[in-house]
Each structure stands twice: as structure tokens, then as C-alpha cells.
Design a protein that fits this description.
two-stranded antiparallel ribbon, mainly alpha, 8 helices, single chain
């Protein structure tokens, strides 16, 4: 079965790549979130999530965005995935500014990690178990998401960048919330699509009960 093009994911990767290319070319862009310049540079609450100045940081985030975003767009509307990325970015930026204020020191935040983790949390909430081939080792999306949360918690406790790590956790929280709110609808849509594709007889007994139960819920 052909999958619809992941236009939102490709758009996000394209914007990130364009900004990275400009910065790598020596063009100074006012896009990173500097808590010392907040709220004067209010737009950086979002633009930091498209800003990378390190090659590895950029490459890892874009790889994760492509892998997770494309799969999510098979189950969610394109605008839902795009809105989730932006919401995770803003939530991460807001929590970063708050932590910086509480700590009483200026800090800078850049990178798509918080927004990408929002999408990862959505994949976790919808029970995504698709396995990805990483260095010839197959790893599930769910395993990657759980490992990311565990790593961030350890970084907050022992790492040098608690502001950034709190931003990451905020992104995850947004993804969990969106995933929780949309999980039922996605499940129903997936079962209906299976019926349309292969007929009602293709459903297992458990799927029939699940569809019947959800269809009768208000």
C-alpha cells in the first residue's frame, strides 16, 4: 500500500537545512534563544528549533525527524504533525526561559531536539513498534523514545545543561499530551482503513471488539 508523501516532515527538514546552510556559510542569524535577550527577541521562542551550528547536532536531529515524522504522517494529518513540532518547540523554549530566570543566569538554546522529541513521544503514545534499521541493528521507535527519556533524566541530574534538558522534557510532555488526545481517533481510523482495504472479515476478534467499543463511546 502506497503511503502519502510526508510533506510536513520534508518542509521542516528543508527549513532546518536552509538555516544550517546559512549559519555554516558565516551568516549570523538572530534565531537562537538567548534568555538574556528575552523577550526583546520574542521570535526566538520558536526559531531556535530550526537553528543548528554543529554538524553532528544537525545530522542527528534531522535523521530522527525524518524517521519519526514520516511514520507519523501515515497516521496523522500533515498539519497535526507540523503543529505538534511547533508546539513542542514553543513549550521547550518557554520552559528554558523559565529555568534560566529561576537559575538567575543567561543561557542559550538552539536545536530541534525538543520538537523532535515531541514527535517521538507521539509515536510512543500511539504504540508505534515499527523497527528501524540502525547500523544493521533493528530498534523499535518505542525503544528509542524510552531511551531518550531516560537519558534526558540522567542529564538533568548530572549534566551541565539543565535548561536544555528541561526543554527536552517539555517537548516530550507535549507529545504525550497530543498522543493521548488523538490516540483513540487514530486507532478507530486505522481499523476503519483496514476494513475498507480488506473487508470486515480481516479484523481479528480483539479488533472487532475494540472497534465496536470505541464506536459506541461518546
Amino acid at each position: 500500500m502506497a503511503h502519502k508523501p510526508a510533506y510536513s516532515t520534508y518542509t521542516l527538514v528543508g527549513i532546518n537545512t536552509a538555516v544550517y546552510a546559512l549559519i555554516s556559510g558565516g551568516i549570523a542569524l538572530p534565531t537562537a534563544l538567548d534568555s538574556a535577550q528575552w523577550p526583546e527577541r520574542w521570535w526566538t521562542l520558536l526559531t531556535y528549533a530550526f537553528t543548528h551550528d554543529a554538524t553532528m547536532h544537525f545530522a542527528v536531529n534531522m535523521f530522527a525527524l525524518l524517521m519519526i515524522g514520516r511514520r507519523l504522517e501515515r497516521h496523522y494529518r500533515r498539519l497535526t504533525v507540523l503543529a505538534a513540532y511547533l508546539a513542542g518547540a514553543v513549550a521547550g523554549g518557554a520552559s528554558f526561559v523559565l529555568i534560566s530566570a529561576l537559575a538567575g543566569k543567561a543561557m542559550t538554546l538552539a536545536g530541534a531536539s525538543a520538537a523532535v522529541l515531541t514527535l517521538g513521544a507521539m509515536a510512543l503514545m500511539r504504540g508505534e513498534r515499527t523497527r528501524l534499521a540502525l547500523m544493521k541493528v533493528k530498534v523499535s521507535v518505542r525503544t528509542l523514545a524510552l531511551a531518550a527519556v531516560a537519558l534526558i533524566v540522567l542529564c538533568i541530574a548530572f549534566g551541565p545543561n539543565p535548561g536544555g534538558d528541561v526543554a527536552h522534557l517539555s517537548g516530550i510532555a507535549v507529545g504525550v499530551g497530543i498522543g493521548w488526545c488523538t490516540r483513540r481517533k487514530c486507532t478507530v481510523d486505522a481499523l476503519i482503513a483496514k476494513v475498507e482495504r480488506s473487508g470486515y472479515g480481516s479484523l481479528t476478534e480483539a479488533e472487532r471488539k475494540q472497534l465496536f467499543s470505541m464506536s459506541n463511546q461518546k
